[in-house]
Description:
Oligomer: homodimer
Helix content of chain A: 25-40%
Shape of chain A: globular
Number of domains of chain A: 2
Amino acid sequence: xxxxxxxxxxxxxxxxxxxxxxxxxxxxxxxxxxxxxxxxxxxxxxxxxxxxxxxxxxxxxxxxxxxxxxxxxxxxxxxxxxxxxxxxxxxxxxxxxxxxxxxxxxxxxxxxxxxxxxxxxxxxxxxxxxxxxxxxxxxxxxxxxxxxxxxxxxxxxxxxxxxxxxxxxxxxxxxxxxxxxxxxxxxxxxxxxxxxxxxxxxxxxxxxxxxxxxxxxxxxxxxxxxxxxxxxxxxxxxxxxxxxxxxxxxxxxxxxxxxxxxxxxxxxxxxxxxxxxxxxxxxxxxxxxxxxxxxxxxxxxxxxxxxxxxxxxxxxxxxxxxxxxxxxxxxxxxxxxxxxxxxxxxxxxxxxxxxxxxxxx
Amino acid sequence: xxxxxxxxxxxxxxxxxxxxxxxxxxxxxxxxxxxxxxxxxxxxxxxxxxxxxxxxxxxxxxxxxxxxxxxxxxxxxxxxxxxxxxxxxxxxxxxxxxxxxxxxxxxxxxxxxxxxxxxxxxxxxxxxxxxxxxxxxxxxxxxxxxxxxxxxxxxxxxxxxxxxxxxxxxxxxxxxxxxxxxxxxxxxxxxxxxxxxxxxxxxxxxxxxxxxxxxxxxxxxxxxxxxxxxxxxxxxxxxxxxxxxxxxxxxxxxxxxxxxxxxxxxxxxxxxxxxxxxxxxxxxxxxxxxxxxxxxxxxxxxxxxxxxxxxxxxxxxxxxxxxxxxxxxxxxxxxxxxxxxxxxxxxxxxxxxxxxxxxxx
Lengths: 361, 361
């Protein structure tokens, strides 16, 4: 067993939880589900799998201070800010270099900062299995989620039968990674029983992922090599500021996963929810008899299946209306139909286009 | 022509405009339509018809300070607070006594404080006609509104053919006053062409209305006589505190109008709207192409026919939802379907029943 690390990817903008989430306080810095920020919960969840010194967080300049507050137990230098967002392949490269500087033969898991997982013991056990799979052979390991339905918001992983069994858990060979499908295609995937959701959770050893970069993303590989050299001589801060924005901007799925033949998938045996938007929080709370999920100073009269998020003593009342999400914050309030939550992005574009309203982003 | 007075009835609770309206700031103290409180607009509207010294406002203890602020040009003693609400017959009696103390032969108009009337010149002309009608004979005069539809929220006045013409305007004899009808009955009223809405606007001379009290509401008449005696000897404040709460609690329609044979109606020739609830404000503003009425810091994305009231720099955004009224205030926010605005009362009952939430009333 090589030394193990976890790198938590905490750079999302969290637009879908506006107005609670803002540029400087995205979803992973908010207690969307649970009492602590999602990032804090994510760090706590990997304790026991790796030592705290081996947990990195990759975030943005704007969110760095917030991430530090959310991770008081991590060494400050383990929190690293990308100067600009360069998509997930570059972030994976940065993660690889951070781990490599500590231990060039180590394995590391890349984990999103903002998922909800309640079954922590099983999660830790499964993560150990994924580490073991990554260490057993020259494999790129992903943790696959059994689809709860034909979601079009996720990429999918097609398995190709059993690869090995580790600690009593099946690990499957992977036939291919596919991008977000349309609804018909997604239905076919789910019906086939061969597909998992790609939840963006990966485990691999530094030499294995580095070889994959070299083989499938040579331009990015070259850029990372340069970054590594400058970081080793002058430190991360200057190296990132100087070189990071030049890295190719592509996703890890497109750069590596769709092109690699040495991928295996560990089917998740824990509960999992990415809580992708406001309507998704309902299942994590106890609704009233009419299906309303209502926070402390919210109220619903003659309405069903509403979500009302109101705090700091502000009363928010929904009367004679159903299937709404209503979120009150100190300076902005959102009322959105549950089926239209994806249109929050259109609202945010309007805010961005209006100088008088940019402060609400 | 006898001396003329106007008594503005400004005691409504304005529940239907919660959360803008509260116990101490009901609808008539808010600029629901227009830039000034509805009461201020009502006072301005009668200027030119009567001198400002002849304008009284009857309100409640809780609203007295707010009414004073809304009527800075009226003599302070012209604003009188009922110690408790005793319905409109007692309020009419109080109005009568206030006017009688100034001039026992005067005529006075009783006018609600919170109606919207844009055609002020025509309104003033019509009010002069109503005064002239009241002074021409021993008549109880009401101003009737031509029904815009079979509303069940108003009482109706059935006319019985022409009585006189005054200044070129028809005044009609009245067959009867009827209470709020059900929808079928209201449709029949409207179809007949014989009915007006009873908008609670009355004009009469002191001796005529006093005789009506004596004939049709003797218990109230006796109570008013006692109140008059105490007010003349010891002032209004003590007399009201001592006696007002003992007056019978009945409506002016039931106590006098439905029982009197000497009623005439002046059909209104001005625009009129009682703006009974939030959905009714829409027609007084310019909607966007999708029919949304949105205040300064409100926004609607992909929704139609919403009313969004948001100010003080707070952003209120409606996304993917239609036919809602959304009202944001500093401590409370309401989201109500346009067709369910009457259920705001059920919400307010819940607030009243919860000690922790009474502060929002």
